[in-house]
Design a protein that fits this description.
By secondary structure, the protein is of the alpha/beta class. Helix content is about 20%, strand content about 20%. It starts with a strand and ends with a strand. It comes from Micavibrio aeruginosavorus (strain ARL-13).
């Protein structure tokens, strides 16, 4: 997959949700993780982060939205359930993106929404857990930007050799021949 992405949260209040989201970011190949004014003890996150993602991903902690800094050319994508946000299935992910999710019992702040280049929503009846929402967005990014075969028209998967779905090889019986100079039997 080309480009890079990071994931962040604003005002998160549950260590296990953050640990879950960091672990998922690590699993999907995220480049960094950030928090904006978290309301948790970051040391307690390791309880639910069984992959030790903070040992593999840089963590940036910002004390306010105004202090948020992203890599050059990185677009900020808010994940928020609003009438104006773009439904995830209709969204083209930026090559360089930072996705930000809100707190468990609230929404992204108006000042953070104003800073976003794009705001997307997962089309569903109501909000889900912040870790689940982050995983859905990262999965959609992987599927839409990754190099996968097109989905077949019928149920099931493609049978392309490069995907490892080749039929079992047909083995030919070995032949015994005599070495022309030494007269020994060799197998071919």
């Amino acid at each position: 997959m080309r480009g890079f992405f990071g994931v962040g949260v604003q005002s998160i209040s549950k260590e296990q949700n953050l640990g879950n989201l960091v672990r998922t970011t690590h699993a999907f190949g995220g480049s960094f993780f950030f928090t904006i004014k978290p309301d948790i003890d970051l040391d307690l996150v390791r309880v639910s982060d069984t992959s030790d993602a903070f040992d593999h991903l840089p963590l940036y902690n910002f004390d306010s939205v105004d202090n948020l800094r992203l890599p050059a050319g990185c677009q900020l994508v808010g994940v928020e359930l609003t009438d104006e946000s773009i439904p995830l299935p209709s969204f083209r992910h930026p090559t360089r993106a930072a996705y930000v999710l809100g707190p468990e019992m609230g929404s992204l702040s108006p000042d953070l929404l104003a800073k976003c280049d794009h705001v997307i929503r997962i089309p569903m009846k109501f909000c889900v857990n912040v870790g689940v929402a982050g995983a859905i967005v990262m999965y959609d990014r992987m599927v839409s930007l990754g190099r996968f075969a097109d989905r077949p028209v019928a149920a099931g998967g493609p049978m392309d050799a490069h995907l490892g779905n080749m039929p079992a090889p047909v083995w030919q019986p070995r032949r015994v021949i005599r070495h022309p100079l030494k007269g020994r039997k060799v197998t071919e």
